Amino acid sequence: MRNVLRIIRLLVAADPWAMARGAALSVVVLVMGAALLGLSGWFITATGLAGLAGIGIAFDVFRPSAGVRFLALGRAASRYGERLLTHDATLRAIAALRVALLRSYARTDAKGLARLRGEIALTRIVSDVDALDGLLLRLVLPILAALLTHIVVFIVLGSLVGWSVALVIFAGYLPAAALVLIFLARRTVCLSAQAEDVGQQLRRGIIDMMRDREALIVAGQLPRSEAGLLAMDDQARAALAHLDRAERDAASLFSILVALVAMGAFAAGAYLLEGNAIGPAKAVVGLFVALALAEAVLPLRRGVAELGRMVSAAGRVAPQTAQASPAPDAAGDTGEAPLLSIKRPEFELDFFAGEAVVLTGASGAGKSTLLMQIAGIDQDDDIRIKGTRPSFWVEPELRGILAVLPQRSGLISGSVRDNLSLSGSHCDETLWAALETVALAEDIRARGGLDTRLGEAGSGLSGGQARRLSLARILLKRPEIMLLDEPTEGLDDHMADLVLTRLRTALPEALIVAAMHRGADHRIFDRSLRLVR
Amino acid sequence: MQDEEVAAVPNCRVRAKARIIAPVQRELRLAGWLSLAAGILWPIQAGAIAWVVSGWAAGVPATDQIWTAAAVFILCAVLRASLEHRLGALLHQAADRTIERERSILISREARAPGQAGSASIASLVVQKLPLLQPWITRYHVAMVRVSVLPFLFLLLAFSQSWVVGLTLLVAGPLIPVFMALVGMAAEDASRRQMDEIGTMNEMLMERLSAMLDIRLLGGVDRAAADFSDRAESLRKKTMAVLRIAFLSSTVLELVSALGVAMVAVFVGFTLLGEINFGSWGHPLTLGQGLFLLLIAPEFFQPLRELAAAWHDRAAGFAVVAELDALDAADRVAFVGTGLPATPVAGAICIKTQDVVVLRADRQVRVPDFEFAVGETLALMGPSGSGKSSVLAALAGLLPLHEGRIIVNNCPLDADTADPWRARIAMIPQRPHFPDVTLRYWLDTGQRGADPWHALRLADATEIVERLPHGLETRLGETGGGVSGGEARRLLIARALHTGADLILADEPTADLDSETAARIIATLKKMQRDGRAIIVATHDPKLASAMDRIVEVGQ
């Protein structure tokens, strides 16, 4: 529940003023609707009686009929305003929430980032956030508006017509509607959470199946995986069918409730009339108002049926948005300190601009971890860049002087240009120069230039091409420190030699720290460090 | 060109209806009848109220008739509630069947024969957009049936009491369909744009998330967030455009109907006062008649407004169907065979390629002619990008052949032989991809429930698994986050060994490995050869290549 409240606060905070106006208008709409029907009923009855009594001329027709027109137009206009304001504010908040979630995923440390499963984060940012858009629009605002409207109507009706009529409507609608809604909520809260949950599993399952396609085919498991997804779909639809049933039950109860309350108000009016407390025209007002209030009660069931979905989504989204803010960013540069210093059990060394260091060691010795530590996204107690711990740097400044080639090339679908521009835009000549350095220009030119489209996760390039494209991307940053994890992965010896040599020539001033299995004896490296676990 | 486009719109609507609506016609028709039955109950309820109030005016004691009228009113309400309950069930079934059908088409096609669309956008179509067909199915048709009957019925009732009221409604009513037709086109366009944006946003997000480590390290988080923020904003604008049209049109309709009702009320009021002496048949309008007219006037407009709302649902439905149609028509590359588990092909492994060319997205890859038999090991070598991986894919029947043929165990590799052939193959892909399952499940590709430790030992991977906090129950990141690159590679090898297959197709099996581990892997491969397995590797590693019996150059 705390999570739900946090999300509600977040949605309101996006534009509280618009939300407040929208909420006020939604009450206005309902009150005007009740007033419109009540006034019309009164008007017709009153005029009919006046006509019968032969005092038609004396009857003031203009004010009531102007009132009817005003209420009719006013209600339509307020409804338009209310919808526009609340939807616009909510959608704004939703868009902002999506971006905040994306940023929170980007902030996690090396382990979190490496373990980040795209499809899981995707369902958080898309499905869960979508589920939350109804929280205000279909749940909180309608319930608040219905409550307020009932209170207003109770007071006005009580003083104008009679307290018995007002009480029948108030006490008829509120407790019974609350009961129906509570019953509906209890029945659906698990169902709708389950429907959402299975739906998300389905979404992830489809992405997983398509991305793991080849392995599934070779293993003869594709049909099985398809069958698994179809079973998931059956489950999701079964939950939705139960949900639909529950909602229809509630709808039926509501429409019977409306009839009961309307007739109750009608009868209460009749008894007042019989006791000569009021005239026939006032006696019908309660009936018409009760019919109009159906509009306040009927829509509530939709939001309540979604409650389970919203609560479970809020439970997943809210903790993610609340994740720790970026590390304490202290100042960077401290003058004379070496560019990079590393303290480890095996060695304690300083490194300076223009050096090239190769890290070796058995698979699992911690080469990649060390690079991530230097990059400031892993435990970095014993590492200093210009005298400051990497994670104490201001993030953009650190990224400005440090470029990292992670072990696996993370490419995206889109053009070659899109891939090169992930960190910033460059002119075409610069892009080509970088491609030239990594000996990829020829290949890219042959395939159609910078606008060549790559498939999902950069598919369409061979392993070695993908590697070189990732290298070109970090070259474009012209960093002071270049951390390379297996830069020659997927390249033949000739190509590996060419790329390393050109890399060194292209950035002679940069400190290169590379983790390599093969080719660690390349001539560009001045030093070799062996890591042991 | 322009004419073609204009002609294409109704055409695709016809197709959309044939695809989505025609199969559920029976339920929709029945639901239509039920909704009509529910609709004609209201005049009875209105009549009951009017009867009581006109009794009051005639001096009947106020509470004499009230309970009879209340009983009639409530009975009708109960009846209507149960009719609507039933028709809701029918409509839900119809929509449910449709969604089930469309989902199963997508699920059993998109992984088999992928087109251009990315996995995230397919997933969003299946999970997010297909359900948008539901309101179209459940609301539009019923609204159409109600519109074609109920307004006429209420009009008739209105005329029977007063021709002026009837005429008022007759003038105001048709404004609604005219207006609807005007907004209809705009609504459809807006919906289509919104659908497209949903797909684009999903795909973009998925890609950025998958490459998040790189983006963070490149200092591109702000830029990625800004790009994504643009997309999310654009989705908001497009959603708002759809909503604005919907809100505006429903407001205009509400205004038209409110004004119609207000005019009826004012006219009835003046007539009852005796200031207007025309408009009714012979005798002046009574109070009961007046109330009755006031109560049925809003119901005259109600079906028209429902239709207008459903019009937007239909527009959204058309947009979804347009997307489904586009996917149906997309170019697809299928694999060879069915993908079902099959009895392994008999005989010792042998392969012969003859003039094979395979199609890969934008280019053709020529496969060198070679022969290969069990007990042999072979290295495919060639410059980066020359198509080594494509050759391996073709040998496994993952890519259709454009020209030439591959003979496996003396039969051509085709739809009939591919599955039995693959039953003897294990592949070690170049890029590790770990789906969201436990390691135990992932290692056991055939889901035979066998013990994976033997294979892990063979691949030198036991300690990797032992070091993981949850051991075999660990779920790794998409590209193997949680273990190092070399470790991921060894896990892939263990998985291939675990299948028991006797032809191993390995794409760069020694990539990311230090020379010791690489040497051990090479030794493992040699041992497998001695055990009677055939091995083909695509590699740049000269050590690995020289350990193989033969080298075939690709891309010459």
Determine the CATH topology of the largest domain in chain A. Answer: ABC transporter transmembrane region fold
CATH architecture of the largest domain in chain A: Up-down Bundle
How many β-strand stretches of chain B?
Answer: 10
Highest CATH level, the class of the largest domain in chain A: Mainly Alpha
Highlighted features:
heterodimer, A: 533 residues, alpha/beta, ABC transporter transmembrane region fold, Rossmann fold, 2 domains, five-stranded parallel beta sheet, three-stranded antiparallel beta sheet, 67% helix, B: alpha/beta, 19 helices, 10 strands, 63% helix, disordered N terminus
Q: In brief, what are we looking at here?
A:
The complex is a heterodimer of chains A (533) and B (556). With 533 residues, chain A is of the alpha/beta class.
What does this structure look like?
The complex is a heterodimer of chains A (533) and B (556). Chain A is α/β, with parallel strands linked by helices and 533 residues long. Chain A folds into two domains: 2-321, ABC transporter type 1, transmembrane domain (ABC transporter transmembrane region fold, Up-down Bundle); 340-530, P-loop containing nucleotide triphosphate hydrolases (Rossmann fold). Chain A is built from 19 helices and ten strands. Chain A has a five-stranded parallel beta sheet, sandwiched between helices. Chain A has a three-stranded antiparallel beta sheet with strand order 2-1-4, with no helix packed on it. A two-stranded antiparallel sheet of chain A has the order 6-7. In chain A, α2 packs parallel to α6 and α7 (163-211) crosses α12. The longest helix of chain A has 53 residues, at 222-274. Chain A is elongated, with a radius of gyration of 34 Å. The model of chain A has no long low-confidence stretch (mean pLDDT 88). By secondary structure, chain B is α/β, with parallel strands linked by helices. Chain B has two domains: 9-329, ABC transporter type 1, transmembrane domain (ABC transporter transmembrane region fold), CATH 1.20.1560; 350-553, Rossmann fold (3-Layer(aba) Sandwich). Helices cover 63% and strands 9% of the residues of chain B. Chain B contains 19 helices and ten strands. In chain B, strands 1, 2, 3, 5 and 6 form a five-stranded antiparallel beta sheet that branches. Chain B has a five-stranded parallel beta sheet with strand order 7-8-9-4-10, sandwiched between helices. In chain B, a hairpin with a 2-residue loop joins β5 (401-408) and β6 (411-412). Chain B starts with a helix and ends with a strand. Classes of the chains: A alpha/beta (533), B alpha/beta (556). At the A-B interface, α2, α3, α4, α5 and α7 of A face α3, α4, α5, α8 and α9 of B.
